[in-house]
Amino acid sequence: MAKPILYSFSHSSCTWRVRLALNYKDIAYETRVVNLSRGETRDPEFLKVNPAGHIPALVVNGKVLAQSMAILEYIEEAYPEKPLLPKDLIQRAKVREICELIVSGIQPLQHRQVAGKYSDDKQKQLEWQDFYIHRGLTALERILTDCSGKYAVGDDFTLADCCLIPQVFNAEHRFKMDMSGFPRINEINKNLSELPAFKTAHPDAQID
Amino acid sequence: MSRPILYAFHVSSCSWRVRIALAHKKIEHDIRVVNIVNRESRSPEYMSKVNPAGQIPALEVNGNVIAESLAILEYLEEVYPQKPLLPKEAIERAKVREICELIATGIQPLQNPKVAARHSTETEKRLEWTEYYINRGFIALEKILNTTSANGKYCYGDSLTTADCVLVPQVFNAIARFKLDMTPYPKIMSIYNSLMKLEEVKLGHPDNKLS
């Protein structure tokens, strides 16, 4: 099987999730940079790859996969070593619940494009983004009380952590939110930061 | 194993997704009505006993609660493999999930009336917001479905999948609630019209109040 190709932008949260999974499982892949901030997702060349114009896109033997959760589940199924989902069915559901809480309940709403459609005023945009991140992290903190251990679900690295890391980074570093109300999230993120995949998948470690 | 309990409400799109899957797989279950219009999902009782995120649907299974409709759909697929809602092959499964996620992350959260209300107090501006996000999503969806739907009856191939469970409520909302012009989306409409004839889809229709 030829190496998968990941169409990626260093600071795209959705792509970062996929990099975490690929790097954790030691899967070799080729990166092709699609610079979101320069609008390269609208380039005709990229639209030939993914007509929906989204990143991440993962090309596997000529087949293009899009949407980070769909890609993460594919990676888990195609590369079962170093699993990112627990065996227990309820625990697996908890992992997916946390993923979806972030990927549908927080990230789309704090997206720059959405905040920009809300208002041209930078301060108002920030208030919008803060509101949705705060609301989502509050719910996440409550859910993590019961299911978390060293990481989001128990003591093993899972897809939930792949989704959590980029969102927490955004909250802390992009939006400079006060994270003092989220002790569990903070501790989990600290534990995660010790993993090699955390470092190698980080935006600062990417070729762009 | 005792019967699962689904916490749901008849107008909730996300609940309808799960109800289609439960009906398709003929899974016996109980329903607890959670009136989201009256903010019952945000009550201290619901949030402490059922779902701390204060949302529906939630599925209670032997004392464990699973929330988030796509997580519930994946759980049902794993626990009740009869009448599968995902293909067998990994790339095909990824395509079905891609369609689900395009709707569940790219359209539904943004066209949510509460989000539109946060955008503006003016009805017309809210509608413009909603239409913008639904149209943006449907343009992408129409392109994908043209490559994945075998005969315009289902989203993927020629049988019901989780993608259909997620598509139906979103298209219903677009047409019935927001009166969106669906002329640019013939493939979406073909699939939607076909799915709306299915018993498992009709069961969860918002006009059927839950008891």
Automatic annotation (TrEMBL), chain A:
Protein name in UniProt: maleylacetoacetate isomerase
Required cofactor names: glutathione
Enzyme kind, highest EC tier: isomerase
Gene Ontology terms: cellular component: mitochondrion
Domain GST N-terminal stretches: 2-83
Protein's pathway: Amino-acid degradation; L-phenylalanine degradation; acetoacetate and fumarate from L-phenylalanine: step 5/6
PANTHER family: MALEYLACETOACETATE ISOMERASE
GO molecular function, one term: glutathione transferase activity
Alphabetical list of CDD domains matching this protein: GST_C_Zeta, GST_N_Zeta
Gene Ontology process terms (BP): glutathione metabolic process; L-phenylalanine catabolic process; L-tyrosine catabolic process
Entry keywords, A to Z: Phenylalanine catabolism, Tyrosine catabolism
Domain GST C-terminal: 88-208
Catalyzed reactions per annotation: 4-maleylacetoacetate = 4-fumarylacetoacetate
UniProtKB/TrEMBL annotation, chain B:
Species of the source: Allacma fusca
Organismal lineage: Eukaryota, Metazoa, Ecdysozoa, Arthropoda, Hexapoda
Family matches, as NCBIfam families: maiA
Name of the molecule in the record: maleylacetoacetate isomerase
Enzyme nomenclature, EC number: 5.2.1.2
One Gene Ontology cellular component: mitochondrion
UniProt keyword annotation of Ion transport present: no
Positions of the GST C-terminal domain: 89-211
PROSITE patterns membership: GST_CTER, GST_NTER
Family: Belongs to the GST superfamily. Zeta family.
Superkingdom of this protein's organism: Eukaryota
Membrane-spanning segments: none
Domain GST N-terminal per the UniProt entry, residue ranges: 2-84
Keywords assigned by UniProt, alphabetized: Phenylalanine catabolism, Tyrosine catabolism
